[in-house]
Amino acid sequence: MDGFFRKIDANPDMYGPLWITTTLIFMLAAFGNFATYLMQRKTNLDIWNFDVGYFNWAASVMYGYAAVVPAVFFFLFQYFGSRPSLVRFWCMWGYSLFIFIPASALLLIPVEFLRWVIIILVGGASSWFISLNLKECTEGADMMVLIASAAVLQFALALFIKVFFFA
């Protein structure tokens, strides 16, 4: 979980921000609709329709999150005296979204309590990944407020995924 920047130090890639995010968008749109189908199957199947709007929401939120949030934290870290790399931040935040791909498949389980347990664990793991790796960028400076806000933002994304796509 930690040491991500040391592993990508020589060659950070854009695979995470691009392909992991794109895969997550399709998974959220498809599995979000399927989860709605599974939940409504118990009551009345005649009123269920595939909602294409899930794709628009997933693309807007995930691409926006993967591009804007790392850029904002890059500028905040620079403002407070650290010298991070924007490409490394994009890379790290993109890879932090990977855990949501298998989680979106697990969120198909039609047991609401289990869904909440899954999203809390996944949100916590993703937040922990961000926190541990942002500590490496602080260069001894005390930026715990920035690190904590990044972790809270990552956890808020997990809650948004659960509430919007798998309610």
Structure description:
73% of the residues lie in helices and 0% in strands. With 167 residues, it is mostly helical. The protein has one domain. Helix 3 (53-79) crosses helix 4 (86-96) and helix 6 packs antiparallel against helix 7 (144-165). The longest helix is centred in the N-terminal third of the chain and has 27 residues, at 15-41. The mean pLDDT is 85. Keywords: Membrane, Transmembrane, Transmembrane helix. Belongs to the YIP1 family. The chain crosses the membrane at residues 14-34, 54-77, 89-107, 113-132, 144-165.
* Helix-and-strand structural type: mainly alpha
Q: Tally of extended strands?
A: 0
Shape: elongated
Tell me about the biggest sheet?
Answer: none
Low-confidence stretches: none
Family: Belongs to the YIP1 family.
InterPro entries: Yip1_dom, Yip5/YIPF1/YIPF2
Subcellular location: Golgi apparatus membrane; Membrane
Membrane topology: Multi-pass membrane protein
